[in-house]
Write a structure and sequence with these properties.
Blueprint: H1 11-15, H2 19-26, E1 38-40, H3 51-65, H4 74-84, H5 92-111, H6 149-166, H7 169-178, H8 185-195, H9 214-219, H10 222-229, H11 260-272, H12 292-313, H13 323-331, E2 361-363, E3 383-386, E4 388-391, E5 400-407, H14 408-411, E6 423-430, E7 438-445, E8 448-458, E9 466-473, H15 476-481, E10 488-497, H16 509-519, E11 524-532
Parallel strand pairs: 1-2
Antiparallel strand pairs: 3-11, 4-5, 5-10, 6-9, 6-11, 7-8, 7-10
Helix pairs in contact: 3-5, 5-12, 6-8, 10-11, 11-12
Length: about 525
C-alpha cells in the first residue's frame, strides 16, 4: 500500500480565526458529514466486527514469519521504538501516532483486510487486560514469538549489523544524540538484554490475573483523565506546567517534564503490564513486542483527539502558539518509520502527523468524551510552591519526600470546572537501570490525617538517565480538608517503592535485569513542587 498524500497542516490552517478553517483541520471528519474511511474500535465494544481481531492476528503472524532482514518483521518494527521513541517531551503523542499509523497500513497490507484498523483498549472503562489479548499471537508468551534472548541474538545478529550499516548520516546523528541503544551493533547488544524478556515473562499479567493493580487503577480513573483533558496548554516551557503533551525539549530524544497523561495512565499501564514481578516487555523500551502496546497507545491517541476537540470548542489553540515554537515542533524529524513495502516513509516531519486525517481514521466513543466541549472557563494562572525535601533517598528507613507549604486560598475548591486541578510535580534523578521501577506517591497533612495514595510513578522511556519530572494529580479530598483553613496548609508528599511480590526464573534474562536493578541504588527525589489554581 502506498502512502496517501495529505495537505500539509500550517499555522494558518490550525490556528486561523475562521470557524470553517478550524473545523476542517481539527474536528473529526465525521463531524463535518464526511466520515473517515477507517474506524478504530474499542476492543470490548460489542459493535466491533469480529474480523478486526482476526486480521490483527493474521497480520502479526505474517510479520513474525518475515525474515529478520525485512523491516516489516515484527521484532524489527518493535526496534523502531528504542531507536527513536520520544518520552517526556512534546513529541510524545505525535510520534506514537505515526508509529501506530504505519504499523496499521502494514497490517492492512499483510492481513489482506483492506478495511483493517487497530483496536484500542479503554482502560478507564475496563481496567484489566481484555480476554481476547491472551489468544494466539495477541499474547507474546505464545508461539511463534522468540522464546529467549539468546535465540533472539542468534537470529538477529546479522540483521542488526546490516541495519546499522544501512543508517544514513542523519540516522547516525540521531542515534548519537540519543545514546541508547547505541551507535554500533556492539552497543545495541550491550543494551538489548535489558530490554528483552524471556518466555514465560514476555507479559506479566495473565489470563488468570488480568487486572491492573490498585496503584494503576488510580492513574486510569476518570478523575485523572479529566485532570489531563482539562489541561489548557499544548506544552509548557521551562518553569511552567508540563501541558497536555508533556513539556518542550530541544529534540525528541531529550526528556524534560511529563504531563498528566504521560506520567499517569501511560507510564503506569506500562508498569502494570509487568505483573507482580515487574517483568515483561511492556516495562522496557522494546514494549512494542507485545501487541497490547498498540491498543494502549491507541487509547492515548484517542484522548489526544478528545482534548483537541475540547480545545477547539473552547476557542483555545490545539498546537504550539508562537511561530518559532510551532516551527520547531512541526519540523522535528522522525527518520525510522517504514511503509507497507518496508521502505522509509517520505513523511518525516512531526507536523505531518498533527491530524488523524493523515491515516484517515477515527475512534468509537470512549471514556472522556463527556468533557467535550466542557464549559468555557478561562485558563487560570497556576501558583507553584516548592517542598522542603527532608529525605531524598527512596527506599530508606524514612520515606523520601518533603513538606510543601501551600496557602489555604490556593487549595480552595473551584466553584466551576477549572484546569488544572491540584498537582504535585515530583522530580527524580534517574539512571538507565531504573527502567521499570515503580513508586507510590502519598500525600497527607503532617501531624494528622491519613496518608492518601495520590498516584504512581513508573520509570518508563528514560534511556539517558538524569532528572525527570512526573505530574501526579492530588485528590480533591486534599482541597476539601483545607476548607475554612487560613494561612498556609502543609502538605507532606512522599515517594515510596512499590514492592515486587513474585520471582522469575533465575536462568532467564528477566532475572538478570532484576539483578542489575538490585545492584543499583534507588533514585533520589530531586524536588517536589505543588501547583494549584
Amino acid at each position: 500500500m502506498s502512502e496517501k498524500r495529505q495537505p500539509r497542516l500550517t499555522r494558518r490552517s490550525i490556528l486561523g480565526t475562521g470557524a470553517a478553517v478550524l473545523a476542517a483541520n481539527v474536528l473529526p471528519r465525521s463531524a463535518l458529514g464526511a466520515g473517515p474511511r477507517f474506524r478504530r474500535w474499542e476492543i470490548t465494544d460489542p459493535a466491533m466486527p469480529p474480523r478486526v481481531l482476526d486480521s490483527y492476528k493474521r497480520g502479526i503472524r505474517k510479520m513474525l514469519e518475515l525474515p529478520p532482514t525485512d523491516a516489516r518483521n515484527w521484532y524489527r518494527n518493535a526496534l523502531v521504538h528504542p531507536f527513536d521513541c520520544p518520552h517526556g517531551n512534546w513529541w510524545f503523542l505525535v510520534w506514537h501516532r505515526a508509529y501506530l499509523g504505519w504499523l496499521e497500513v502494514t497490517l492492512r497490507d499483510l492481513s489482506g483486510d483492506q478495511e483493517f484498523a487497530l483496536p484500542y483498549w479503554d482502560w478507564t472503562k475496563t481496567p484489566r487486560v481484555p480476554a481476547a489479548m491472551f489468544v494466539d499471537v495477541l499474547d507474546p508468551n505464545n508461539s511463534p514469538y522468540v522464546a529467549t534472548f539468546d535465540q533472539f541474538k542468534t537470529q538477529f545478529t546479522p540483521a542488526i549489523a546490516a541495519l546499522y550499516a544501512s543508517f544514513t548520516p542523519d540516522q547516525n546523528a540521531a542515534q548519537a544524540q540519543r545514546g541508547f541503544p547505541g551507535s554500533t551493533p556492539d552497543d545495541f547488544w550491550g543494551n538489548a538484554q535489558q530490554m528483552f524478556f524471556d518466555q514465560p515473562d514476555a507479559r506479566g499479567l495473565t489470563a488468570s490475573n488480568p487486572d491492573l493493580d490498585p496503584f494503576t487503577q488510580t492513574t486510569v480513573a476518570i478523575s485523572t483523565i479529566r485532570a489531563a483533558i482539562q489541561t489548557p496548554t499544548f506544552a509548557g516551557g521551562p518553569g511552567q506546567a508540563a501541558g497536555f503533551q508533556s513539556a518542550q525539549a530541544p529534540n525528541h530524544s531529550a526528556s524534560s517534564n511529563k504531563g498528566i497523561l504521560e506520567s499517569q495512565p501511560h507510564d503506569n499501564v506500562h508498569g502494570a503490564m509487568g505483573g507482580p514481578a515487574g517483568a515483561a516487555f511492556m516495562v522496557s523500551l522494546m514494549s512494542s513486542v507485545d501487541p497490547i502496546f498498540f491498543l494502549h497507545h491507541g487509547n492515548l491517541d484517542r484522548l489526544w483527539d478528545v482534548w483537541t476537540r475540547r480545545q477547539t470548542a473552547l476557542g483555545r489553540p490545539t498546537l504550539p502558539q508562537q511561530g518559532a515554537d510551532l516551527t520547531a515542533w512541526s519540523d522535528e524529524q522522525f527518520l525510522f518509520f517504514n511503509n507497507a513495502q518496508g521502505q522509509p516513509v517520505t513523511k518525516t516531519k512531526a507536523g505531518e502527523y498533527a491530524s488523524m486525517s493523515v491515516f484517515d481514521y477515527d475512534y468509537s466513543p470512549g471514556s472522556g468524551e463527556e468533557f467535550v466541549p466542557g464549559p468555557a472557563v478561562a485558563a487560570a494562572t497556576t501558583q507553584a510552591f516548592t517542598a522542603q525535601i527532608t529525605t531524598a533517598a527512596i527506599g530508606g528507613a524514612l520515606p523520601a519526600g518533603g513538606v510543601v507549604q501551600v496557602p489555604a486560598s490556593a487549595l480552595k475548591l473551584p466553584a466551576v470546572e477549572a484546569p488544572p486541578a491540584l498537582v504535585a510535580e515530583v522530580t527524580l534523578n534517574l539512571g538507565h537501570k531504573d527502567e521499570g521501577r515503580r513508586f507510590n506517591v502519598l500525600v497527607s497533612r503532617p501531624g494528622g490525617g491519613p496518608q492518601v495514595s495520590a498516584g504512581a510513578i513508573t520509570v518508563f522511556g528514560h534511556p539517558h538517565g538524569g532528572p525527570t519530572t512526573f505530574v501526579v494529580p492530588l485528590p480533591e479530598s486534599v482541597r476539601a480538608a483545607a476548607a475554612g483553613a487560613g494561612g498556609n496548609v502543609p502538605l507532606d508528599v512522599r515517594v515510596v517503592p512499590i514492592a515486587r511480590t513474585a520471582a522469575v526464573s533465575p536462568a532467564s534474562s528477566t532475572a538478570k535485569v532484576h539483578a542489575a536493578q538490585a545492584a543499583a541504588a534507588l533514585p533520589l527525589v530531586a524536588g517536589i513542587t505543588v501547583r494549584a489554581n
